Amino acid sequence: MDACELLKRYAAGERNFNKVELIHADLISAELNGIHLSRADLDWTNLSGAKLVEADLSGAELVNSNLINIDLSKANLSGANLSRSDLSWANLSGANLIRTDLCQSNLRGANLSRANLSRVDLSGANLTGLNFSEVNLSGANVTGANLSGANLNRADLSGTNLRGADFSQAKLVGTNLSGANQVGAVLTGADLNGADLSRSNLTGAHLQGLVLSGVILRGANLRGANMRAVDIVDANLSRADLIGANLSRVNLSGGNLSWATLSRANLSRAELGGINLNRATLHGGNLSTVDLRGVSLIGADLSEANMSGTNLSRADLSGANLSSANLRGVNLSEADLGGAIMPDGRRRD
Asked: Pfam families from the entry (predicted)?
């Protein structure tokens, strides 16, 4: 079948074209609303400007196709292969894109409002500036994709693979990123206010200079992450893994880091007023010149930590481990050291 025959039969009222082969077909601006093209082979097809509202393209092959300005609103594209296709300015609002392959596709300017993108493959795709607000992307593969400037406010990215993705200047307010893999992701300048990053993997992520007010990082893996000068007031980082993280000049005031692992982390000149560090592991960490006045460090592991010039006045260090810690110039006035292990290995009464 060729494009002319398909258009003729569609005009006559036929809608079922499942499994049809139309490779390299020219269907520019074709009106094909409600057409059934399930498992059809449409590789290299030109459908630019075409209208396929509520069409069934489930399992279809559209590799390397021209889909610029196409209208696929409310269409079923589940399991379809659109890899390396150009979907610039396409209308995909309300479309079913579950398990769709959009690897290396161009979605610049596309409308994805209310679309279901769970388990979709967007690896390496150009998603610059797109609106993904409240979109379901749970379990999707977005590795290496460019999401710079994209709007992902309140979207569901739980369990998503975001390894190496670029989120610079993206909007992620209230976004669900729980359990997501963000190893090496770039989040410079992104807005993550109120986002849920619990149990997410942010190993080596670039977070410097971000405002993370009210963000949930409970149980997150932030090993080696660059969080220099991050504003993370009132954040929940309990049981988070921050081994070797750069937290210099970070503002963690009022945050919860109880049971967090901060071994070898750099916290120099960080703002930690009112923080909860109970049972936290700070072995070998750099806490020099940090203001910890009145902070709770009950049972914390500060062994071999550099605390030179730190202010620990009125801090609660009961049961803390300070063995081999550097306390040169530390202010311990009115601090509670009951049961603490001091740098010489002796336990305080």
From this structure: Pentapeptide (PF00805)
